[in-house]
């Protein structure tokens, strides 16, 4: 039997979007302002898990799991909230613990303030164009998958089988990306992963695209712990960075990982973080684009889509991290910072050590 729908006249009198949740993180009541802002009936929100309303990232979940050692409300910047896959609404969220153990959430919308971090929202026209492109890609991807399966049956040597496996893996990853564009779904739960496994996948892709024209240098820290993340999304983000370096005329591309302690990412200080650097000796970022390089549809190449860096930055945010760069002709460094939990697992290094590939 469904719980009775609760209404709070005191909350309904407020123009600020507000909701309450019980000690278990389930919505008990929201005011009319919150329901209107989120674009959903006021009756549909009660009994929904609060974390299910977060459309991107996991800052809300992290705040709910954090120890109550902070006095006063917690402020979470630019949280994307949506109901059952609806259009995300962005807000600065204030989260307070009430005397009975329940939660009070205030949403202060930031969409209405122009000029505030435009990289967070893709224009509707672009979203529609991407869905159309995804639809057109489905049939060619199905054909590639079938061809890879046929090649796999005929491959006689280990090198050929490895290349066929790489093709099949990339087709599967692209198919999943197409499915996400066609039918957006909540982010997948993060899993422990070896970040060097992600980088090795990118190295194989770079070797196939650039061949002998680019020297790829591995500079890995083998003592890094496992990272909680989405391997497919991280592979796509790092590949975008490496491919940009190749397309900028780089002769040398270095993939470097290190552990850093006491790192500030946004407003949070993390005791341990992964610093990943993609270093290249290509042409660098054009000075005219220096302030816009992470915006969608901005590219320094005439044939560029302008989506690679915007997507890489989005993946960094999904992992509570950040992406930044510094550049001059002949030396460009993109730095990806991702927080690590010190107890997330054993070392991820194994055989990953400093080295090069042709």
From TrEMBL:
CDD domains associated with the record: HisKA, PAS
Reaction catalyzed: ATP + protein L-histidine = ADP + protein N-phospho-L-histidine
Pfam families the UniProt entry points to: HATPase_c, HisKA, PAS
Domain Histidine kinase: 132-342
Molecular function GO labels: ATP binding; hydrolase activity; phosphorelay sensor kinase activity
PROSITE patterns: HIS_KIN
Record-listed E.C. numbers: 2.7.13.3
UniProt keyword list: ATP-binding, Hydrolase, Kinase, Nitrogen fixation, Nucleotide-binding, Phosphoprotein, Transferase, Two-component regulatory system
One biological process term in Gene Ontology: regulation of DNA-templated transcription
Annotated PANTHER family: SENSOR HISTIDINE KINASE, SENSORY HISTIDINE KINASE_PHOSPHATASE NTRB
UniProt function note: Member of the two-component regulatory system NtrB/NtrC, which controls expression of the nitrogen-regulated (ntr) genes in response to nitrogen limitation. Under conditions of nitrogen limitation, NtrB autophosphorylates and transfers the phosphoryl group to NtrC. In the presence of nitrogen, acts as a phosphatase that dephosphorylates and inactivates NtrC.
Identification of the protein by name: Sensory histidine kinase/phosphatase NtrB
Organism: Luteimonas viscosa
């Amino acid at each position: 039997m469904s719980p009775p729908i609760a209404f709070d006249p005191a909350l309904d009198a407020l123009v600020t979007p507000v909701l309450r949740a019980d000690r278990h993180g389930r919505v008990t009541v929201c005011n009319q302002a919150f329901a209107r802002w989120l674009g959903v009936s006021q009756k549909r929100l009660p009994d929904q898990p609060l974390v299910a309303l977060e459309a991107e990232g996991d800052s809300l979940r992290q705040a709910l799991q954090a120890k109550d050692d902070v006095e006063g409300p917690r402020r979470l910047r630019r949280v994307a909230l949506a109901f059952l896959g609806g259009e995300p609404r962005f807000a600065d969220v204030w989260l307070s613990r009430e005397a009975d153990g329940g939660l009070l959430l205030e949403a202060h919308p930031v969409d209405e303030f122009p000029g505030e971090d435009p990289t967070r929202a893709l224009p509707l026209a672009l979203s529609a164009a991407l869905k159309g492109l995804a639809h057109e890609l489905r049939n060619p991807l199905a054909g590639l998958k079938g061809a890879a399966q046929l090649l796999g049956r005929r491959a006689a040597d280990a090198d050929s089988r490895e290349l066929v496996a790489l093709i099949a893996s990339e087709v599967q990853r692209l198919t999943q990306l197409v499915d996400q564009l066609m039918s957006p779904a909540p982010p997948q739960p993060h899993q422990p992963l070896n970040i060097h496994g992600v980088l090795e996948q990118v190295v194989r892709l770079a070797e196939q695209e650039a061949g002998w024209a680019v020297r790829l240098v591995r500079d890995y820290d083998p003592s890094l712990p496992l990272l909680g993340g989405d391997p497919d999304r991280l592979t796509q983000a790092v590949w975008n960075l490496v491919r940009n370096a190749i397309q900028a005329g780089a002769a040398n591309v270095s993939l470097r990982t290190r552990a850093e302690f006491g790192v500030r990412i946004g407003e949070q200080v993390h005791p341990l973080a992964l610093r990943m650097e993609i270093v290249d000796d290509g042409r660098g970022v054009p000075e005219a684009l220096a302030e816009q390089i992470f915006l969608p549809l901005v590219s320094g190449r005439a044939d560029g889509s302008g989506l690679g860096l915007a997507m890489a930055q989005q993946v960094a945010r999904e992992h509570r991290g950040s992406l930044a760069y510094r550049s001059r002709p002949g030396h460009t460094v993109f730095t990806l910072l991702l927080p690590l939990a010190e107890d997330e697992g054993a070392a991820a290094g194994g055989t990953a050590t400093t080295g090069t590939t042709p």
